[in-house]
Amino acid sequence: MLVELLSRETAMPVVAIEDGMRVEPNRVHVIVPAKTLLISDGILHLVEPDAPRGHRHPIDKFFSALAEDQKAKAIAIVLSGAGSNGTAGLADIKQAGGMCIAQDPETAKFDSMPRHAIASNLVDLVLAPEAMPEALLRYARHSYVLAQRPEIDAEDEPGQSATGLDDVLALLHARAGHDFSQYKLNTLSRRVHRRMGLAQLEDLGQYLDLLAREPEEAAALVQDLLIHVTAFFRDAEAWEAL
To answer: CA 83 → CA 66, 78, 114, 175, 199, distances in Å?
Structure first.
């Protein structure tokens, strides 16, 4: 049913997912009913749900698997829909360094899913559907996504990497009162580079200027850095051990 409906709206092939199917570009892959969808090494897997009907969260499950599989290259989009399915999975996407988008609720026929996602403070961009392709293409071309490692490349910023990040820390401490000086350099670098990708900036100096000008960007970077702290409290195994 969904395959047929989507096929009328796009020139791309729309296919029902089969277990073991590899994700292909320029193709719409649609989950089949009564299955949980996972991904590993770019291969889609259909498994039996582990919860009774009415208590399943298939979008959360897939977002979590996508975060584990694609790390910083993962992108999650919450579109029109009822309920809160997908919001919990966004936390894993954000923790992995990926990007989270929600449909502008004003453009959604069923707005509760995007509204729940936005209320979680995990969403990077709130966009109408027609604005999403351009945003995705711009982000996908940024060095944060293209690089083998998502840290800022010190060779591209001669003598500026450590110093520039120190400046970021000082600015966040002055603006938001948060001291991230004990953060690992790689963790800080990844998070700053991710925000640079969202802002479409390749130069760390330009990003520092943005941080100084825009309190909202400083607040967003703080939230990105705090996701590492809050991840512990979402770790069921850690709590069980305690």
So the answer is: 21, 11, 9, 36, 30
